[in-house]
Amino acid sequence: MHATLLSILGLALLSALRAQDSVPVQTDFQQDKLTGRWYSIGLASNSNWFKEKKHLMKMCTTVISATADGNLEVTSTYPKGDQCEKRNSLYIKTEQPGRFSYTSPRWGSKHDIRVVETNYEEYALVATQISKSTGSSTMVLLYSRTKELSPERLERFTQFSREQGLMDEEILILPQT
């Protein structure tokens, strides 16, 4: 009985790892071109916090800057109630250009972040696999240099989110602020 259960759990873990490795990273990623101001246009996630807060979420501004050691400082400013809050994150570069890691000091969750595709001047599609002691979740973000994006880019975000196993009710185009 235990052997069967362990085999099933092992196969499930292997499938999850394979799915995570199948998430592409931008070919010839150029980190310096990703820096600057972005707007969060779309957010998709199967996490519990997203399901609970989805109805409150709005577009936020994110500024990405490179650190001296080649990592990324990511500062997001988002509306919360009648004021704005800032959240700073340090994305640590990995050996694969366009792939970063981040550990949340608040929640202890580990994030595997991949810049899936971008043309640097218009949009960026970013996928994150989040792992913590209570389980794992997937998040997909669509960034834009402006507050609006073409219907084709929005559709690509939706399509990619579905490819990551996310359901339509877990995909949100954020209202402008």
Entry keywords:
8-stranded antiparallel β-barrel, single chain, disordered N terminus, lipid biosynthesis, golgi apparatus, 177 residues, Lipocalin, 24% helix, alpha+beta
In short:
This protein is α+β, with helices and mostly antiparallel strands and 177 residues long. The protein is 24% helix and 41% strand. An eight-stranded antiparallel β-barrel has the order 1-2-3-4-5-6-7-8.
What do these coordinates show?
With 177 residues, the chain is of the alpha+beta class. The chain has one domain: Calycin beta-barrel core domain (Lipocalin, Beta Barrel), CATH 2.40.128.20. Helix content is 24%, strand content 41%. The protein is built from four helices and nine strands, in the order ααβαβββββββαβ. It has helices at residues 2-21, 31-34, 48-53, 151-163; strands at residues 36-45, 61-66, 72-80, 83-93, 99-103, 110-118, 123-132, 135-144, 171-173. Strands 1-2-3-4-5-6-7-8 form an eight-stranded antiparallel β-barrel. A hairpin with a 5-residue loop joins strand 2 and strand 3. The chain is globular, with a radius of gyration of 17 Å. Mean pLDDT is 88; it is low at 1-20.
